[in-house]
Design a protein that fits this description.
The complex is a heterodimer of chains A (about 170) and B (about 100).
Chain A: H1 4-22, H2 26-46, H3 50-74, H4 77-81, H5 87-110, H6 125-133, H7 137-158, H8 165-169
Helix pairs in contact in A: 1-2, 2-3
Chain B: H1 5-25, H2 29-53, H3 58-88
Helix pairs in contact in B: 1-2, 2-3
The chains are: A mainly alpha (about 170), B mainly alpha (about 100).
Chain lengths: ~170, ~100
């Protein structure tokens, strides 16, 4: 059975995930998204994976959430606060969500997952580091290239071409 | 360890369903990006949970790769949103009808 810390993190994560999508202001939405990401980091700590939790906090809360917050602030003010959506589509979406939850939940509960228990010691982060540098080194190099090219691509996309160089420095 | 694998998997299913609701209902591009982030996080939670209970280190390795790729995806996605905003003065995806230069 789940303990109280797990339940508290669950309430935080699910509640702020719903708030991130439903709050009227996009700024509060992105702050709620930070709550969800932090809750996931808490789950990683409960799962004895402090290295992944640290990575989650550094990458998601530290960079992605701040990036989203800055992008939201670049958008016009009334676009941040207006919420345009079709009510019929919304009910269909809620129905889809409930069907998905029930169907996937039924599949998972009927499988043998419930009986899985573990007494194994948690995995040391040295093992992960060794994995990265031995078996997965091509993937690590590829990931570095993807990150570099995506940053260059993002900068190229967001660059303003209608602005002269002397305007940009000012 | 008092928490069982099924608890984490159920939380992950709930997050996935919320994310799919967001992607299918919301018309604001930034909010759709939020929903995609929630789905990616549900997947990462599943990876780490199964890695803990099997037990195996590869799930954590894959979760780390996934987090890094998600960072790249968000950077490009936000740049695309900014470009589209500059063109259409809007972030509503229903307004992006002709995505040409």
């Amino acid at each position: 059975m789940a303990d109280s810390v797990f339940l508290a993190i669950s309430v935080l994560t699910i509640g702020s995930a719903i708030a991130a999508l439903e709050v009227r202001s996009l700024i509060y939405g992105s702050i709620s998204l930070m709550g969800t990401l932090g809750g996931i980091a808490g789950y990683f700590l409960l799962l004895d994976s402090p290295f992944v939790a640290m990575f989650q906090i550094a990458v998601y809360i530290g960079s992605i959430a701040v990036l989203i917050l800055f992008t939201v602030m670049l958008v016009r003010r009334q676009l941040i606060f207006t919420k345009v959506e079709d009510p019929r589509r919304r009910y269909a979406g809620i129905g889809l969500m409930l069907i998905m939850m029930v169907a996937l939940g039924a599949i998972i509960l009927s499988s043998g997952i419930k009986t899985i228990q573990t007494d194994a010691p948690p995995i040391d982060f040295r093992t992960i580091g060794a994995d990265f540098l031995t078996y997965y080194w091509p993937a690590l190099i590829l990931m570095a290239l993807i990150l570099a090219s995506s940053v260059v691509g993002a900068l190229t996309l967001a660059r303003r071409e209608d602005m002269e160089d002397d305007q940009r420095t000012n | 360890m008092t928490n069982e694998l099924i608890d984490f998997v159920i939380i992950s299913i709930a997050l996935l369903a919320i994310g799919i609701y967001g992607v299918s209902v919301k018309r604001n591009a930034i909010r759709m990006l939020f929903a995609i982030e929630i789905i990616i996080n549900a997947a990462n939670l599943n990876l780490v949970a199964f890695a803990r209970f099997i037990p195996n280190s590869q799930g954590q390795t894959f979760a780390l790769f996934s987090i890094a790729i998600a960072a790249a995806e968000v950077a490009v996605g936000l740049a695309l949103i900014i470009v589209a905003y500059r063109m259409y003065k809007n972030v509503d995806i229903a307004e992006f009808r002709s995505l040409k230069g």
